[in-house]
Amino acid sequence: MKNNFCILSILLSLLVIQGCVIIGYRNHFSRDLTPEQQSKVVWNTPDERLLSLKNDGRIYAINGKQMQKMVQPHPKAIVYQWSPHCTSEACLSLSAIQTLCDNNSIALFVVTDYFHDAFSQNQVLSRPLFIANEKHYKTDVCHKLEKRFYIDLLGEETYNATKEISWYRYAYFEKGKFVRYIRDPYVELDNK
């Protein structure tokens, strides 16, 4: 009986792990996107052009240093690490976070965790949707991409000092400087 329980536990664990890979712990550019969607991913954008981008329905693959340059000119900004399928209270819809930021004069930059279903929700943003550039970081594993992106964005020392709370998903900046991670934007930002 114990052996059967152990085998069942191992099989269930393997199914869960397999399910995570399918759902999106890897960016599957060629598998998850149609040829039309693939043509709407921009891989190499000059830094100076990034500063003036409007949402044109494309996803821009960038690195953390490029995001840092985009955040810099704004008095207040949020970089939202967004997952298209997240149903947690911590994951606001793109429409909700855009409205909250607009109402509080905060520049919003959304970085999607993965491509799958990101295009269908992109239209409500004033800026384009971004993704960590897997070609630049030489990996398509989401947690590795996120770590490398945020080290570039925040600097390694700040990243290491804050990585325990980075799952809050909202990095808040003032005058281009990282201030803190935000857990609940409605509580911490509304009319501040």
Question: What does this protein look like?
Answer:
- The chain has 192 residues and is α/β, with parallel strands linked by helices.
- It has one domain.
- The protein has helices at 2-23, 29-32, 35-38, 47-50, 64-71, 94-103, 134-137, 142-154, 156-162, 185-189; strands at 41-42, 59-62, 76-82, 107-112, 129-132, 170-174, 177-182.
- It has a 7-stranded mixed β-sheet with strand order 1-2-5-4-3-6-7.
- The protein starts with a helix and ends with a helix.
What portion of residues is helical? 40-55%
- How many domains? The number is 1
Compute the number of helices: 10
What's the story with the biggest beta sheet? Answer: 7 strands, mixed
Distance between the termini: 59 Å
Percentage beta strand: 15-25%
Q: What structural class is derived from the secondary structure elements?
A: alpha/beta
What assembly state would you assign to the polypeptide chains in this entry?
A: single chain
Low-pLDDT segments: 5-24
Spatial extent as radius of gyration: 18 Å
Name the strands of the widest sheet in spatial order.
1-2-5-4-3-6-7
